Amino acid sequence: MISSPSDLSYFIEVASTLNISRAAERAGISQPSLSLAMQRLEESIGTPLLTRNKSGVTLTQAGKQLLAHSKHLLQIWDKVKDQALASVNEIQGSYTIGCHPSIALYSLGNFLPNLMEQHKQLNIKLIHSLSRKIVEGVISSSIDIGIVVNPIHHPDLVIRKISEDEITFWSSNSARDIQKINTNDAILICDPELLQVQSVLKKMSKIGIKFNRVITSSSLEVISMLTSSGCGVGILPSRVATLIKSQKLEKLENFPSFHDEICLLFRVENKNVKTIQAISKAITTSMSSYPTK
């Protein structure tokens, strides 16, 4: 059992008066309540702190040692409490933002510079992984704020849709046959592990279009680069395909697509934390104004 700061304050009062009744009166609590507080403190320390006698109490050797440090312990507690309150009421402290690397490339630069410039006591750690992993991190409290794609509802989370995206087929203006989707020579470049990619490929199969060769990559940026270089037809989110203007990728019209919801999320108990509110507002504002085409 860990004693409360109040129990320590009561102990200081007892040590000052060496009388339980008088200490209780000065502390503004009943004598039985004070006696229970001393019992909790002794159980927490693991040894008697007071010796009771007819005239009052005296401190044991352990009690004397505790008294020597008790005021310092309370000062530390007050400092920790103030810092904890400041983390709720002021924009400061260390916070972790999690998102997929591709989302990071087109989102972080739009809000993080201003946020860091405006709030000198704010420290940010970035974690990049699959959206599913980011959601798990927010649930476990290892990540404070997540920017994720198509999250599943969870009772512990506040989930806010902040933008949309479209995953579909993209090509460059290359004349290579391996980029002509209606020929047997066309090469597909994609990440087959993504559910969105699996969905559009099923739709393609239903309309009779298949690829004899596929280049797979877990990096959307690599897929974008290879598509731009004329290596094949890429399946990409619009935000990634249009991120690097010099690549000049072109969306293939009238082909199957998958619509994503980009969401911001954090734990329910953090909704009133001022820093969480400030970061969330900065992300939401930047993402909602970002063009998808």
From TrEMBL:
This is LysR family transcriptional regulator. The keyword Transcription regulation applies. One of its GO terms (molecular function) is DNA-binding transcription factor activity. Keywords: DNA-binding, Transcription, Transcription regulation. It comes from the Bacteria. The keyword Cell membrane does not apply. Residues 1-60 form the HTH lysR-type domain. Belongs to the LysR transcriptional regulatory family.
